[in-house]
Amino acid sequence: MSKSYDVVVIGGGPGGYVAAIRAAQNGLKTACVDNWENRDGSHAFGGTCLNAGCIPSKAVLESSELYHRAGHEFSEHGIKLSKPELDLDAMLKRKAGIVKQFTGGIAQLFKANKVDGIAGTGKLLKGNKVEVTAHGGGKKETLEAKHVILATGSTPVELPFAKFDGKRIVDSWDALEFEQVPKRLGVIGAGVIGLELGSVWSRLGSEVTMIEAQDKFLFMADQQIAKDAQRQFKKQGLDIKLGAKLVEAKAGKNDVKVVYEDKSGKHEATFDKLLISVGRRPYTDGLFGDDVKVDTDDRGFVKVDKQNRTSVKNVWAVGDCAPGPMLAHKASEEGVVVADLIAGKTAEMSHECIPSIIYTAPEVAWVGKTEEELKAEKVPYKVGSFGFAANGRAQAMNQAAGMVKMLAHKDSDEVLGVHIVGPMASELIAEAVLAMEFRASAEDIQLTIHAHPALGEVIHEAALAVDGKALHGVNR
User: Fold this and answer.
1) Can 135 be counted among the known catalytic residues?
2) With 80 as the cut, is the pLDDT of residue 49 above it?
3) Which residues does FAD bind (predicted)?
4) Which residues define the annotated binding site for FAD?
């Protein structure tokens, strides 16, 4: 006899496990089926984010930044050290410990909230039944559900002429597991993942070359901020080639030979490792039974309405397998909304107020519209910007590069977008997200008292600059 649930979630990443917990909190009998498999064959909840993405990458980003600062900046603080010695094994062991702590924490949260966590691969069948193949290819069982939430996430895009081999040509997960620092690292794609991992290995001693097909650096970000960030990364030694397209990659025993093409012609390069980070695609392989027809678009994303309902009744989709930015926090919030809607509650989220962050040094973060978008949409706007160089806390931290840029409606003064390149941008952007959620005006932020000395004062000054009132710098 098959087990019956109110909700079955397929996928245990940030969208899936959060949806399962909230559904259970709402009094619904819930199961979460997840098929993540670690390199050693073991199972862990948390999906790409906790196992091979957000969490482990931030751990090595922090470690590599400390290593870099110890070797290049500590002396400016009056701290004299001999040349720092890198213990890569210890660095990666620390990373692995953090990952294990968080993935194990999900299992404990499931237990505390009475969610049935099931290690296995889920397949949606007709009538909202879910066929589960136990982890390791074991026996199959069928779960019956009143509602099914698809939260299967995404997987790296593989280039047909540069297939992953796990040794020389690698994906973002493998790039977190190098046993030694590559002397020459090639990175295909200068987006969020490429920049973060390129920064890690550059700090640890790699010569990093980034090959980006787009003519504009960080084309999705405000271009004033992007250009500022590009200057900082160039100073750090990242060789970023724009308008360059990889056309060939051949892995040998000891290196990878590549050919890329730009407006000046074809070029050859040789690397010890080649990271392919050209994007991710929705992971829906084997998700649907032959008797189920869930509408997907031409890129493989599961089509959903504004409340994340799919074309099949009582089947929902959240996170990376659904359209929208591939961000863990977007997935989690969608999971919460869907779980509440299933329980009959009123729930919604603002897709216009989802922050994006790149955890480099300096960090890059933004929310809302860019100046380019406002121009294209012919929205009347005013702009204010302020640099961290005039901020006492940033100078004390020796991290005074970068700026905050704020865009507000010219007539209503409503904040339309905030863009940051600078220290702790990932934390500072939260104020902007909250302001935009409440549809605050630039004047609202001007009238908000910010602590001194603090990095948040730069947001305050940028808001003042919107109306030409910046107190500690030249107004634009």
Assistant:
1) no
2) yes
3) 58, 122, 152-154, 320, 326-329
4) 58, 122, 152-154, 320, 326-329
Residue 109, Ramachandran bin (φ over 0: left; ψ between -120 and 50: alpha; else beta):
alpha
> How many domains are contained in the chain?
3
The torsion angles phi and psi of 266, rounded to 5 degrees, stand at -90, 145
Q: Same domain, yes or no, for 428 and 444?
A: yes
Name the pLDDT band for 218 (thresholds 50, 70, 90): very high
Please indicate, yes or no, if residue 163 is contained in any of the structural domains.
Answer: no
Residues making up the binding site for NAD(+):
189-196, 212, 279
pTM, 2 dp: 0.96
pLDDT reported for residue 6: 98
Q: At a CB cut-off of 8 Å and minimum separation 6, what does 411 contact?
A: 380
User: Are 287 and 386 within one domain?
Assistant: no
DSSP helix/strand/coil, 364: strand
Which residues carry a binding-site annotation?
Answer: 58, 122, 152-154, 189-196, 212, 279, 320, 326-329
- Strands (E) in 272-334, as ranges, are 273-276, 280-282, 315-317
314 in a structural domain: yes
In eight-state DSSP terms, residue 302 is: B
381-414, pLDDT tens digit by residue?
Answer: 999 999 999 999 999 999 999 999 999 999 999 9
Q: What CATH number is associated with residue 223?
A: 3.50.50.60
Q: Which of 77, 419, 452, 460 is catalytic?
A: 452
* Pair 274, 292 in one domain: no
Domain range holding 220? 169-278
CATH code of the domain in which 455 resides: 3.30.390.30
